[in-house]
Structures are given as C-alpha cells and as structure tokens.
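As a warm-up, study this chain.
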Amino acid sequence: MFSICDLLLINKIDYLSLSDFDMSALRKRVMALNPRIVILEVSCKTGSGIEGWIDWLKREVEYFKGLK
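Now compare it with the structure written out below.
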C-alpha cells in the first residue's frame, strides 16, 4: 500500500504522547518503500497539521486540472 500512495495522513497525533507509537520507525519504514511519499501528521481534535493537508489537497487538485 505505501509503495503506491502519494500521501500518508497520520491522524490523532495529539494522542502520541500517551502511546508507545514510534513515529520515527514508521517514517523510516514507509520512506524505504516509497521515498516520494508525503507524510503529514494531523490532529482533527486540535487542528494541528490540517492547513498542510489542505495545501496538499489544493496542489493535487490543481495538478489534476492541468491534466485535463
């Protein structure tokens, strides 16, 4: 899955401090599979990272429009 995706969106980053999830290990493994993937960390609860996701979506829409 990660080898063909353009984006990996990781939600609930506000919860990371309460878990033993290793974001560094995830990034390393995903980047080994797909060095071109964009990894965005967001929190729908706090709004953190949402602007970056919106910006990514806007760029993708503009790119798609240019292909038509």
